[in-house]
Design brief:
Elements lengths: L1 H28 L6 H9 L2 H14 L6 H37 L3
Helix pairs in contact: 1-2, 1-4, 2-4, 3-4
């Protein structure tokens, strides 16, 4: 299970980097040179899907009897989601930076 999760995370970082490059390229074509935060959010936005899945998993499959159990699960999930958003957003921004350096080198 851990190997599967690591493989998924690695492939997700690659896809996030490609999405960051794509959003940077489209922004540069239209003359918008403020690409740094857009590329970060292009990668980090996929965390919304993971958050939706975590909530669906909590509602449908986890039998938590107390409200405190739900709150603990949600707080740990939010901590994981914050780290995951930083990971994918950073990989997207780094891929965009490498792309910018590649196309503008002399």
């Amino acid at each position: 299970m851990i190997g599967y999760l690591m493989g998924f995370s690695f492939l997700h970082m690659i896809v996030a980097g490609e999405l960051g490059i794509l959003s940077t390229f489209i922004g540069l074509r239209y003359g918008d040179y403020h690409w740094q935060w857009r590329s970060f959010w292009a990668g980090a936005a996929s965390t919304l899907y993971v958050a939706t899945y975590m909530i669906w998993q909590m509602v449908t499959h986890l039998d938590m009897a107390l409200l405190s159990d739900d709150l603990i699960y949600l707080l740990w999930s939010m901590l994981f989601l914050l780290a995951y958003a930083l990971l994918t957003g950073t990989s997207s921004a780094l891929a965009s930076t490498l792309f910018i350096n590649l196309i503008y080198q002399k």
